[in-house]
Structures are given as structure tokens and as C-alpha cells.
């Protein structure tokens, strides 16, 4: 039997061949076998390579399916988040409008209070002037009455 190939060396390119009888000691159990028929390793190598390629393709297909499912799930989550953001934006806009209305009402109330304060101050000034005039008239009346009593 020939020497085994070195690691990394292709089996098909070496002189290494394997007899079918080395794997199956009783070749008569296989009706297609005749005395002296041999099964070379490159046939098994090709079958094994095809099997490995099919398995790799199957695994990659599974990975791609998994990635597609993940992408689809992330797309749905993104759509949900975008929908929630739209809802929150509409709520925020409504609250901003309501806040602006409250601010306008507060400013209107401040103006009304300022007008009332100004009106009260002007009325207070008028009342003070009227009170001073009344006191002046009272003092004049008292002095006229007292003056008539002394002179008269």
C-alpha cells in the first residue's frame, strides 16, 4: 500500500489509492463487484466534497434564512417604534398647543390685573384729592363760623 499523503495535500493528486477490499473485506456481498475491481480514493473524495459543499450551502441557506428573519423582525420593530414616535409627536404637539393657550390666558389675566391696578390707583388718587378738598372745605367752613362768632 502506498504512503499516506501529507496534511493539506490533495488525495486525488497523490499516488495514494485505496482498494475497495480494504473497506469491505467481503466483496462478494456486492453484486456489482467483480474479482480485482478497485475503488479509488478520488471517487470517495469527490463524493465527500459534494456532500460537504451541499452541507455548506444548506448551512449558509439556514444562516441567510435566520438573518432574513432577524431583518424582518427588526423591520417590524422599527415600524412599531416609528408608529409610537408618531403618536408621541402628535401628543406633544397637542400639549404644546394647550400650553400656548394657557400661556395666552395667563398673559391676558396679567394684563387685566395690571389694568385693574392702574384703575384702582387712579381712583385712590381721585378719592385722596376729593378727601383733601372736603377737609379744606370743612376747615374753611369752621373758620368762617368761628370768625363770625368772634366778630359778631
UniProtKB/TrEMBL annotation:
Superkingdom, taxonomy of origin: Eukaryota
Coiled-coil regions listed in the entry: 92-126
Spans through the membrane: 126-146
Annotated keywords: Coiled coil, Membrane, Transmembrane, Transmembrane helix
The protein, known as: Uncharacterized protein
Amino acid at each position: 500500500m502506498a504512503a499516506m499523503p501529507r496534511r493539506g495535500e490533495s488525495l486525488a493528486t497523490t499516488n495514494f489509492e485505496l482498494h475497495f477490499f480494504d473497506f469491505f473485506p467481503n466483496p462478494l456481498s456486492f453484486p456489482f463487484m467483480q474479482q480485482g475491481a478497485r475503488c479509488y480514493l478520488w471517487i470517495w473524495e469527490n463524493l465527500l466534497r459534494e456532500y460537504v459543499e451541499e452541507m455548506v450551502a444548506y448551512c449558509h441557506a439556514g444562516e441567510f434564512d435566520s438573518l432574513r428573519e432577524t431583518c424582518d423582525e427588526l423591520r417590524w420593530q422599527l415600524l412599531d417604534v416609528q408608529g409610537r414616535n408618531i403618536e408621541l409627536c402628535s401628543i406633544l404637539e397637542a400639549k404644546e398647543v394647550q400650553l400656548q393657550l394657557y400661556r395666552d390666558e395667563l398673559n391676558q389675566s396679567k394684563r387685566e390685573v395690571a389694568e385693574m391696578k392702574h384703575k384702582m390707583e387712579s381712583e385712590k388718587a381721585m378719592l385722596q384729592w376729593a378727601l383733601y378738598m372736603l377737609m379744606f372745605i370743612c376747615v374753611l367752613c369752621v373758620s368762617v363760623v368761628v370768625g363770625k362768632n368772634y366778630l359778631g
